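Audit log entry. Action: structure prediction of a protein-small molecule complex. Ligand: adenosine-5'-triphosphate. The ligand was supplied as SMILES and no pocket hint was given, so placement is left entirely to the predictor. Protonation state taken as written. Sequence taken verbatim from the request; no trimming, no tag removal. Recorded inputs:
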Amino acid sequence: MTTTRGLVGLELSSIGRRYGDNQVLRDLDLTIDPGDFVAILGPSGVGKSTLLRILAGLEEPTSGTMTPIGDVPAGGPTARMMFQEDRLLPWKSVLDNVQLGTKGQRDKAAELLAQVGLAGREKAWPAELSGGQRQRVALARALLHRPDILLLDEPFGALDAITRVTMQQLLEGVLAEHPRTVLLVTHDVEEALVLADRVLLLTPQGITRDLRVPQSRPRHRGDAQLAAWKEELLDGLLEADRAVHAATGS
Ligand SMILES: Nc1ncnc2c1ncn2[C@@H]1O[C@H](COP(=O)(O)OP(=O)(O)OP(=O)(O)O)[C@@H](O)[C@H]1O
C-alpha cells in the first residue's frame, strides 16, 4: 500500500468560476489523492490556469467547496505555484532568488540548487543563466517552501524540446526525493503521459477523460500503450478545442 504520511490531497466539490457572464468552470467534482501527480490537459481558455489559481488560494471559486484530505497539517495545506515564465528577480543572485520570502534557509537553498544541477552557480545573476537553468532556480524556490501541493502551470512550455525532456527527468528525480502532491497543467500530451499518475482532460463539458497511468518510472516514450493514449487524448483535445471555439464564436 502507498503511504500517504505527510501528504495532502484535495477534494473539490461542484467548483465553479464565473467572470461576469463568462462561466469558466462549472460543477467540477474532483478528488486528488495525497501524493498523486495529476496532469491536466485541455484546450486554450477552458480554465486550466483558473483551476490552478483556485487550488493555490490565489482566487476564490464563485461556487463549490474545496476540502483538504490526507495528512492535513494544523494550519491547513500550503501550495506553491511555478509558471511558464520563471519570475526571478533580475537584481538578486540565484541563491537569493531561491530564498526569496524565507529567512535563514541558506543551506537548504544551496542544497536544493545542487539537486537541480546548479551547484556553484549560487552567485550568478538570472541573466547569466539559460531558460532551462532559470526554470531550475524557479523549481528550487518552489520546493524550498516545502509546499504540500505543488502547482505547475506549463512550467516547461517555453523551453526547447531537449531542455524540456531534461527538465521532465529532473522533476521526476526531485519528486522522488521530495514526494508531493502535484498538479501539472500542460499542452504537451506526451509530457502528461510520461510524468503523471493520472491524466485529466478538461473540456467545456467538464472532465471528459480521467486516465490512470500505471506504467513504472522512468517511462519509455516509445511505449505502445502510451502512444495509443497519446492519440486518444489528442483526438479528445481537438474535439474539445472545436467545442470551445463553437461556444465563444471564435
Ligand atoms: N481575471 C480574469 N478576469 C476575467 N476573465 C478571466 C480572468 N482570468 C481568466 N479569465 C477568463 O477565463 C477563461 C479561462 O482562462 P484560463 O487562463 O484559466 O484558461 P486556460 O485553460 O489556462 O488557457 P491557456 O491554455 O490558454 O493558458 C478565459 O476565457 C479567460 O479570458
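Audit: result stored. The pocket of adenosine-5'-triphosphate is lined by residues 19, 22, 24, 42, 44-50 (CB under 6 Å). Helices lie at 48-56, 94-99, 106-115, 131-144, 161-177, 189-195, 224-248.
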